Amino acid sequence: MIRIFTLFLGLVASTFAVINYEVALKSEAVMSGFEDSISKMEMTLINARGQTKVRTMSMKVLEGLDADKSLMEFLTPADVKGTKFLNYEHVDKDDDQWLYLPALKRVKRIASKNKSGSFMGSEFAYEDLSAFNVKKYKYEGRAEEVVLDGVEMYKTLSAPASKYSGYTKLISWVDKKTFLIQKVEYYDRKKQLLKTAYFSEYKNFDGVYRIGKIIMKNIQNDKTTVLIWSDEKIKNGLKAKDFHKRYLKR
Amino acid sequence: MKTAFVLIITYVLAFGEVEVSGHLDLEREAFLIAPDSKHKNSFTLKQTLEFVYAYEDLSGLLKVYAQEDYYDTLQMSEHTKRSFARVDELYVKYDFEDDSLQAGKTIKYWGALELMNIVDVFNPKDLRSDMLNPDKLGVWNLSYSHFTDEGEFCVIMKLDEPDQKMAESSYVYNFLPQFIEYDASLQTSNGVNYPSIYLSYSASSDGEYALDYAFILERGYDSQRYLNSSVVNPLLLNQNAYLVNKFMSYNTLVVDATLIKLEVLYADVVADETVGDYSHVAFGFEHTMENIYKSAGFGIIFEYYRYDSYESDKYDDLDLYETMQNDMFIGARYSFNNADDSSIVGGVVHDLDYNEQTYYTQYESRVFESLKVRLDYYYIEPSKTTHTAYAVLGRHQRVGLNIAYYF
After folding, report:
1. A78 and B23 in contact by Cβ < 8 A?
2. pTM to 2 decimals?
3. Secondary structure of chain B: what % helix, strand, coil (to 5)?
4. Do B259 and A53 touch (CB under 8 A)?
5. Which residues of A touch B98 (CB under 8 A)?
6. How confident is the model over B247-281, as pLDDT tens digits?
7. B2-406, which class in CATH?
8. What is the spatial distance between Cα A144 and Cα B360, in angstroms, rounded to a whole number?
9. Distance to chain B for A99, nearest Cα, Å
């Protein structure tokens, strides 16, 4: 009798268990629908001794069906002011990336194959900054139900689809009610824990969520980078034309 | 016309919301090996100021540059005449939805390669500056661009050819013999205001491999110049410009983590008894590896340059002081990817015809938030048998330090 009851419970659990892929799809859905976004970003680099350096940028993003386009302009420090970074994301091939260097008036093509390079000396890699897209990851198995800081979460496992990623696996904590990602652990190519990101200050724009703050802690070098978005506006009517290469020089 | 530009820009800058930025540089160069007649040190104070105005689709820019040389400040007899102020850019631009119009004095960049861009010919260089870090002169022009989804079609009318002034012979990068005088007034067949027309198309392809490409056609004065002596005074040299029909192209192909680059140009000299048709081709690749040590990136660069002149009875690469006529460059870049954006670049240029070598390395980093420091080292071993540009300059070794305050 006990054996039959246990089997019944197991069947019920597997019927209602949520698979990792499903959680990822729902996380993507709650962050989608912003159409376009204009915001400011402040990035604080904190070294192992606690010394800080601040970088500021302005950011425009155009939401695409499969992948986004973005244009970032560096505002400080003064020597990189006016430097712009244009990125056309792709799911099925490498992103198209260009960098504008104002001192030379040069638009330089960037080879984007290696996604693991540090962004502006921070603990963020270029691949960390692209929009969350389920097609960029592989999912297997079921999500674990856990409690983090008193909140019920799904703990999910994924692996980057690109072999050029700097990571072998990602473990994510996703709020069960909102499906917003709260924490991600990144494992390096040696399968060691490399970084932990804490996501917070989500803003709700009529049902569309946008991230407000990410704290990225590098476990291996004790450095931390804090990225804060401010003055964000969505659905501004931006078009693909606003992400033409001409805007690098403008 | 220039006066009208100045008035328009002055009005725009005076009554609009203007953003000011710039940098103040202190530059020190020690020439460890240089000809005896030259100063063994150089101290230069440089100031760049940029005023930008933007209101909706209208924008304007004024960029001024000034430098003061130590020997000029002391008013010594060995002054270098390297102290001056100049307007590098002064333009207004209006952006329509798919088009833009620009008028004024501008600096443009064309090219794909890292060491030298053979097609970056729109702006002449200021010969008073350090020849190892070329310094462009602004040029008056009108331009119209039409933008398509993939690229840009552009028509440019260049309206003048600025004189290229040279420092006094006491400055190490004045390569003329001491007894030779130089008159900066440019000699032309049709006057310095004869317009040069450029038609360009640049775009990006979106196939399996990403490709950026650009084609430029020019009818007007060539960027390559030659020196000849005056009939009245054989010890006085003038610079000469001549008309060409020119085709240029620059391209970058992305293959995985490698950029493959090509620059080509062919000049059909219209009518000049001294210079004949010529071509210049350069290609190379740049491969980057990330996280090779902690978060550092490492790039290797290879480039090859080839210059050919097609009329044997006219000036060749030696007469024209062309330095990249059959040269190979191998270089590397180490980016620390740290909070100070520190990097080291270096390499060697080997001249395959004349057995010349140039070695260089450069370190750059931010110090505090507003200061940037650059340290460089150059060594040039010129040809021992041929009268090349570097042979005229002489064996050369220098260490340089630049400290810049950005605001």
Report:
1. yes
2. 0.91
3. 5, 55, 40
4. no
5. 241
6. 999 999 999 899 999 999 999 999 899 999 999 99
7. mainly beta
8. 57
9. 13
